[in-house]
Every structure is written in C-alpha cells, then in structure tokens.
Design goal:
Blueprint: H1 2-24, H2 28-55, H3 60-109
C-alpha cells in the first residue's frame, strides 16, 4: 500500500533529521535526548517496513522477516520512548541553564 511507503520514507527522513541534529549539538543531555528521538524514528521505519512486507506476502520467508521486523521495530520504539521520557527533564534543565548563561553574558556585555 502507498500509505506504508509514505510512512517508511517519512520515518526515515525524521531519523536522518534527528541524527544531523545529534551531531550538530554540543550539549550532552540534548545529545542523548536526540538519540532517543532518532531511535523512535528508526524503530518506526523498521516497523512500517515489516508491516509493508506482511501486507502482500510473497512467500513464507517474507512473512517471517516481516514478523521479525515488526518485533524489532516495536522494541526500538519502546526503548526510544523510555529513553526520551528519561532524558527530557535533563535536556530542558540544560537548555534553561544555557539560556540563563547567555542572558548573563549579554547583560555583562551591555
């Protein structure tokens, strides 16, 4: 189905976007937070790929591979979501500290 092809491409694009952001940031908590988000996106990619292979199975091997991809994708989504929820408060705290430091630096410069 075309919707699963769209979802596969969409999740792959999000994975690449989060990985680029991961390599561009210097903050450690934000790196882990972005890594968790990219894990969710990659898990979605694998999951939708597995669903797509199960929709129109060509053989028994395709069914087995599809089921394996579904399980691996769901596991990656679950682990990424848990990491996302764990690192989110640290990333927020880190961003606020950086913002405060920039504000202090700006007031000193004036």
């Amino acid at each position: 189905m075309a919707i699963f092809v769209f979802l596969i491409i969409f999740s792959l694009m999000f994975y690449l976007m989060y990985k680029v952001k991961y390599f561009r940031t210097q903050l450690p908590a934000e790196k882990k937070w972005l890594s968790a988000k990219s894990s969710i996106a990659l898990g979605s990619f694998v999951f939708f790929f597995g669903v797509n292979s199960l929709i129109n199975p060509l053989s028994t091997v395709a069914i087995v591979v599809g089921i394996i991809l579904l399980v691996v994708g769901l596991g990656s989504i679950w682990a990424g979501y848990k990491a996302y929820r764990f690192y989110l408060p640290f990333a927020i705290e880190e961003a606020e500290a950086v913002k405060e430091a920039e504000m202090k630096e700006k007031t000193v410069m004036d």
